[in-house]
Amino acid sequence: MTAPVPHFSILLVDDEPAWMRSVSLTLARAGINNIKTCSDSREVPDILAQGNVRLVLLDLTMPHLSGEALLSLIGERHPDILTIVVSGMNQLETAVRCMKLGAFDYFVKTVEEDRLVTGVLRAIRMLELEGENQAISDRFLSGQLRHPEAFVNIVTADRAMLGIFNYIEAVAKSRQPLLITGESGVGKELVARAVHTLSGNTGPLVAVNVAGLDDTVFADTLFGHIRGAYTGADQARRGMIEEATDGTLFLDEIGDLSIPSQVKLLRLLQEGEYFPLGSDRPKRLKARIIVATHRDLQGKEQAGLFRRDLYYRLRTHQIMLPALRERRGDIPLLIDYFLAEAAESLGKKKPTPPKELAQLLATYSFPGNVRELRSMVYDAVSVHRERILSLETFKKAIGPGVPREAAPAAPGRNVFAGLERLPTFGEAADLLVEEAMARAGHNQTIAARLLSISQPALSKRLKGK
Q1: pTM score, whole prediction
Q2: What does each C-alpha distance from 456 to 263, 364, 398, 403, 425 come to in angstroms?
């Protein structure tokens, strides 16, 4: 069953049923199907009082209750409803008078259908954005998730991540594009799946990695083709957009698209329609678009490698996922989650992690983020034999390098500045060792990593004190 578009109703008011049928068909071809009609203007107040109508297309010349009277009534009683006047009168004074009474737009009935559809889509988008902004405000004020079950596969207790969950709940039902950014391995596809779950869309989530696709393959993958579209096209093939009908199309690695492919994607988002290769008959976009990238899109746009109009179209809603090194408090939770997952996958009993494991991994910068941690845990469980999980696999994986990215010091800042007496080299070294051991919970392996020296060197230093 196709979901109504938009989620609120559009009311057509005219004493000419033939005109309302024609406009209804025109809007339906544009994917707008949540339409009510009324040929008796006296019934309009009762219809609006029932709620759910947010947009009215209104004729001016009608018996009983005139269009201008209705326009004034709507402005007084329902200021949240937008009204588009569609009149047979092509008079500037009438149009100006209607705009002063609060009309959102004014069209003459003889105007081209495309212009009317564009005006309706503009009004719908404005109403949807207003609703989404209000929803975002409400979510952040309440601080409570309404559907925590949608995030069950994203393991976190981090405040920034929980704030992102609130934002996701607010924009999940939007039909506007969603841009997800973040380093590789932070869980962008998991977020896309959570958005799809919360969207209420009845269709599937279709994921496509567009990295490395040339212009022709990109178009064929998304739009499909008809039989005979090119040499070897013996059968028609549905594109991924059609496969995602009434669902979500997730385009990963969008930052790697070529400029010609960017143009095709921009047209899809602007027009809401596309042409299968070899076809001259357009098809409507009936899926929510979510895109993701680990690239700096703003930087690419400024360098001329990414179209500015597409960039701003995609970032109507945007989520930036933090790297794992920015949410180290989640490491113990993730270790436990992946241990259970790996044990079940490998048919083993869940091992007990050593108490030093979380401390050890907290010293590592995790360039591969959550995906890298998951791989580490799976590797450790695969060779596990004893009850307590060994640290050795993790030590080999993270290596001896500088573990953590140091916070940048303030310009000109020196920790010894202002001291009346400077410590000797030996005293300074002792203080560093003491602080490292405290931070590492007196674990020499972890303390050595914090100091970027070998464990034997640290041990020798401690024995010499």
Answers
A1: 0.75
A2: 59, 20, 18, 18, 20
